[in-house]
Amino acid sequence: MLSIRNLQASVGDKPILKGINLDVKAGEVHAIMGPNGSGKSTLSNVLAGRENATVTGGSVTYQGKDLLALAVEERAREGVFLAFQYPVEIPGVGNVYLLKAALNAQRKHRGLPELDAMDFLALVKDKMKLMEMNESMLYRAVNEGFSGGEKKRNEILQMVVLEPCLAILDETDSGLDIDALKVVSHGVNSLRSPDRAMILVTHYQRLLDYIKPDFVHVLSDGRIQRSGGPELALELEREGYAWVGDAGNEGAVTP
Amino acid sequence: MNPFLTQCRASFEAQATLEGAVGRERRQAEWTRFEALGWPTTRLEDWKYTALSGLEKLSLHSTAESREAGKDGPPELTLEEVPAPRLVFVDGLFQPALSMLEGLPEGVHLRFWSELDAPARERFAQKMVPARSLTAFGALNGALVTEGIWITVDAGCALEIPLHLVKVSQTGQRMSHGALLLEMGEDSELVLQEHCVGNTDQPTHSNWVTAVELAPRARLTLVKVQKEGILSYHTAALHALQRAGSRLQVFSFALSGALGRNDITLRLIEPHAECVLKGVYRVADRALQDFHTSIEHDSPHCTSDECFKGVLDGTGKAVFNGRVRVALDAQKTASRQSNHNLLLSDKAEVNTKPQLEILADDVQCSHGTTVGQLDEEQWFYLRTRGIAADLARTLLIQAFTLEISEAIPHAGVRAAVRRLLGGTTEENGHV
Ligand SMILES: Nc1ncnc2c1ncn2[C@@H]1O[C@H](COP(=O)(O)OP(=O)(O)OP(=O)(O)O)[C@@H](O)[C@H]1O
Ligand SMILES: [Mg+2]
After folding, report:
1. Residues in a beta bridge with B190
2. Mean of pLDDT values over B367-372
3. What number of CA atoms fall less than 13 Å from residue B114's CA on the CB side?
């Protein structure tokens, strides 16, 4: 589904991603861990199409297409979804409006008829139940005045409504209380299927108790330094990242 | 004399001959005052950023010289959207056939300037003096006035539905000089929506003057949407006098035209009066919008709440000059003012100036000004949800001004304004 080859990106003239290699197949869940500032969000944003980091080398192939050549909104309509580490507040744009416009843009792209207001509301209310969210949030502006945890929940609500093929969750677990973590994980798990893939960026092993990854990667200093199975996360939890750098892998081991 | 003034003088002389002695004298007095004030140039502080060179070159005729206006009627589409009761003016002349007055309660009285006798016209003119004194265009209005409407709302009379005023600039190369006098009795209530529309790509000039008086506890909402043709010039003055406990809400949307200049003065002359003054200006290439507002707290315990938002694209320019004066004995005044601007191009330009003159000491006054660009992060976020780049931009621009239209207290008017502001994304309004 996704194949990242020697991806390099810089912010200004500062290299942040220094040659990322990663293969994600349909049905797989990959966790990316790594110290603060190692480039996890930069990678997520580059995949979604953000331009404040400039791609300076490498390639990304998504479902056979050159992902980097697609506009941000085209990537989204092709099924790429990014749940932001810090979801932005957008006063004046209704949450429900955004959900509907987003869903219909995607349906149109796939040649499906747009949903009318009734069908759409029925669908969204159903998903809100799954996310244990209060319906009143639909009628507020996007993320405006939402608590940190509510914002994260709202990101996952959008995800379960849009049903992406490739979901990238950037620290969706940060700032969630224990109950919310369960709800969010439940939402994410409800989307797991053989034709979907996920990349979870996280600092905590705890999330991986709820969403079992197939692979765990350690991103440090702009490179994937280690890759392994779920046991790698446990190891990191015990040992921290100090030893990772020492491994000093030439090019990462990708599954 | 520039071509514009030459033609104005000709119109003034033609119209003066149609009047009796009193009317002639009045027009002459206004013309003399206009000449004394002088043609506004950028050398004057109040016109520093608003050059009238485009208008100066135009030779525009006044409709009163021919009185054949409105034969084709204004654009159907525009009128269909405007329900009764409505008053329609085309090129500055009242159009009974296009107007619909059903639904007006008995307590609302309409008198037309053209039908007044000389003494009544003089009384009308007297009441227009403060509004006509705001700028030189006010004096010009007095000298060239073609029609006026005098609305009185009896004490205690509350109009449930909004009254609409449609002003159509129908014919190219025309100017219209109308006057509106609105007197609200004690405890009366009215919502007035003013539509300024254009039906020509030719240059036009609309120069209306509005004078409002609110008796104690009267409540008035004025909503003006200006969406005239691309070569339209629009100058307008509003002067309001508020007595004890009255509440005035003014919403002004300046959305198109070559040049727009609004002078708005609200005077809180008795205690516990409240005013809200909110507006949006939007300019694109070569267009200019200018709001000069003045809120005068002459009495204690009054509140004012002012907010203007501007969206500037291309080579568009805007001017906001917001004066707030709090007199020495206007203690316990609460006044807020803000002006926020969204620059969509690096060639757009805004000159914003708060002007606070606070003499009383026990007051709460605040003001704030911002000039910013579209938020990249918000734009990116919307696009990551599959929203097209253009629509995402439109949504964010709309979101920026939404707060103003959503503050309109009347649901029907609010929806109509949302439509006029919106285009494709009106659904988003319900936030
Ligand atoms: N606009 C910018 N200007 C300068 N440096 C930047 C900019 N954006 C990102 N960086 C730098 O890029 C590096 C990687 O940042 P990134 O947000 O990708 O880290 P991260 O791995 O997601 O960290 P965290 O775990 O704290 O979320 C950091 O050193 C950061 O300071
Ligand atoms: Mg991060």
Report:
1. B220
2. 96
3. 15
B138-196, pLDDT tens digit by residue? 999 999 999 999 999 999 999 999 999 999 998 889 999 999 999 999 999 999 999 99
Q: In what order do the strands lie in the sheet with A223-228?
A: A80-83, A166-170, A197-201, A29-33, A215-220, A223-228
How many CA atoms lie within 13 Å of A126's alpha carbon, on the beta-carbon side? 9
Hey, are the CB atoms on A109 and B386 less than 8 Å from each other?
yes
- Identity (one letter) of the amino acid at A221? D
Atom of ligand 1 nearest to the CA of A35: 25
A88 in B contact zone (CB under 8 Å): yes
Task: Measure in Å the smallest separation between the Cα of B428 and chain A Cα atoms.
Answer: 6
pLDDT in tens, B281-334: 999 999 999 999 999 999 999 999 999 999 999 999 999 999 999 999 999 999
Bridge-partner residues for B88, per DSSP?
A: B166
Which of A41, A44, A170 has most ligand 1 atoms within 8 Å of CB, for mutation?
A41
CB environment A145-180: b (16+ within 10 A), e (fewer): ebeebbbbbbbbbbbbbbbbbbbbbbbbbbbbeeeb
Instruction: Assess whether the previous peptide bond of B85 is cis (omega < 30° from 0).
Output: yes
Dihedral sign, CA of B44, B47, B51, B55?
negative
E strands within A43-190? 54-62, 65-66, 80-83, 90-94, 141-142, 166-170
Cα of A152 vs centre of ligand 2, distance in Å, is: 14
Q: CA dist B395 to A184, B291, B402, Å?
A: 29, 25, 10
If pLDDT is split at 50, 70 and 90, which confidence band does A236 have?
confident
Read off the pLDDT band of A43 (50, 70, 90). Answer: very high
Q: Mention every residue, 6+ apart, whose C-beta is less than 8 A from residue A90.
A: A98, A141, A142, A143, A144, B378, B381, B382, B396, B399
pLDDT, mean of residues A187-216 = 93
Q: pTM here?
A: 0.89
Give dist(CA A222, CA A187) in Å, integer. 30
**So what's the pLDDT on residue B78?**
63
Whether the CB of A146 is below 8 Å from some CB of chain B: the reply is no
pLDDT in tens, B35-87: 999 999 999 999 999 999 999 999 998 876 555 544 555 554 467 778 889 99
What is the predicted ipTM?
Answer: 0.94
Nearby residues of B62 by Cβ (< 8 Å), 6 or more positions away? B11, B14, B15, B92, B144, B146, B174, B175, B176, B177
Choose the closest CB to A102 out of B386, B430, B431. Answer: B386
Supply B255's token pair: 């959305």
